[in-house]
Amino acid sequence: CVGMAKLKGHFVSYISGAFLVATLLLILFMAVTAKVGMTVVLESPAEKWTSYDNSTLNFTFTFFGPKKADCILYIDNNVSGYISTKKKVSTSIQANKSYSEENHMWSVTCVSKKKHATNSSWFFYDKTGPKIVWVGIFGANTSFGNNNTTTSALDITAIANITDNGKGVGSISASTTSGTCSIISLTPIQKGYQVNITCNYSNITDVVFLTLFSQDLIDIGSANSNTSTQKIVVDHTLPELQVISPTDDKIEGNVTVSVIVADHNTGVKDVTLNGASMSLYEGDIFAGNWTIAYDTTMLIKNGNYEFCFTAKDYTNNSNTICVTKYVENNNLLTSGFK
């Protein structure tokens, strides 16, 4: 029994000693690991969109490891900067080379005591605002042109596509110099939206400007913006007509019919006499003398006839005036129209 007790005591002492040695080895291993283990944690612009160029953007990271380290910044695998740092200190470095507007890979490698640690991420450099493309401006008597739209409508609808090749379209607004405009819908399309705008130009006869403004989404820096403006000639005014010949109440044979037509907004598009086109004789489309040769012998018989002049401007405003003339010819009329 005494022998067994001594054996048991030696066994316990052996176990206790082994445990102590294992504990010391573990502590030593942890100390060595803590001494030589290194990590680089990237903070900004990790997976971000930025509008800052290399003179403004800070590449920020934290080094974990020995007390000090020398670190190198790489952009797209090209050396772009150097800095020395201390452990557990958030450190910033700026790139010494410019970079283009696109997605880039960036990394930081830190070296200390002949060991190194590396980490990498990406960022997107974006300095371009959203793209605005006008699809059209629609409404009664509306002619959509290359930044020169004319309309006689009280209400119009404008449609445009707004897209962004970066993070996306952030905001959209519409404004007009006269009248009222509002965005009624935004329909998602690839990389952006189709915007639908309604405008009211009641009681306005003027040149107005419809402007779209849009900003993109940016994580670091200021949002990029873009504007696009459409010139719209709003014209509700009818052309003015004044018959200048013939002046006599009675006409015969071949006569020259003339009318002065004025439209100071969009100009006169065409003038007709009883449906037959007249020609611009002198002046211009804003104020001119329009004429036509008229053969009264083509009428069926003598008598009173109505001569109606119709002028239309470039916004399709139309105005008509009529005069009555007595036609008297000595010949026998066999064909024609009244």
CATH topology (level 3) name of the largest domain: Immunoglobulin-like
Average pLDDT metric: 88
Number of strands: 26
Number of helices: 1
Largest sheet: 5 strands, mixed
Overall, the morphology is rod-shaped
**pLDDT < 50 runs, ≥5 residues:** 1-7, 28-35, 334-338
- Kindly estimate the percentage of residues that lie in beta strands according to DSSP: over 45%
CATH architecture of the largest domain: Sandwich
Write the layout of secondary structure elements.
Layout: H1 2-36, E1 39-44, E2 48-50, E3 59-64, E4 68-75, E5 78-86, E6 90-93, E7 103-112, E8 115-125, E9 131-138, E10 142-143, E11 149-151, E12 155-163, E13 169-176, E14 180-189, E15 192-200, E16 206-216, E17 225-234, E18 240-245, E19 250-251, E20 254-262, E21 268-273, E22 276-277, E23 279-284, E24 287-295, E25 303-313, E26 318-327
Parallel strand pairs: 2-8, 11-17, 19-26
Antiparallel strand pairs: 1-3, 3-6, 4-5, 4-7, 7-8, 9-12, 10-11, 12-15, 13-16, 14-15, 16-17, 18-20, 20-24, 21-22, 21-25, 23-24, 25-26
What key phrases describe this protein's structure?
3 domains; single chain; five-stranded mixed beta sheet; 338 residues; Immunoglobulin-like; disordered C terminus; 1 helix
Please describe what this structure looks like.
- The protein has 338 residues and is mainly beta.
- The protein has 3 domains: 39-125, Immunoglobulins (Immunoglobulin-like, Sandwich); 131-234, Immunoglobulin-like (Sandwich), CATH 2.60.40; 240-327, Immunoglobulin-like, CATH 2.60.40.650.
- Helix content is 10%, strand content 56%.
- The protein has 1 helix and 26 strands.
- The chain has one helix at 2-36, and strands at residues 39-44, 48-50, 59-64, 68-75, 78-86, 90-93, 103-112, 115-125, 131-138, 142-143, 149-151, 155-163, 169-176, 180-189, 192-200, 206-216, 225-234, 240-245, 250-251, 254-262, 268-273, 276-277, 279-284, 287-295, 303-313, 318-327.
- The strands form 6 sheets. It has a 5-stranded mixed β-sheet with strand order 2-8-7-4-5, with no helix packed on it. Strands 10-11-17-16-13 form a 5-stranded mixed β-sheet, with no helix packed on it.
- β7 and β8 (115-125) form a beta hairpin.
- The longest helix is centred in the first third of the chain and has 35 residues, at 2-36.
- The radius of gyration is 43 Å and the shape is rod-shaped.
- The model is unreliable at 1-7, 28-35 and 334-338 (pLDDT under 50).
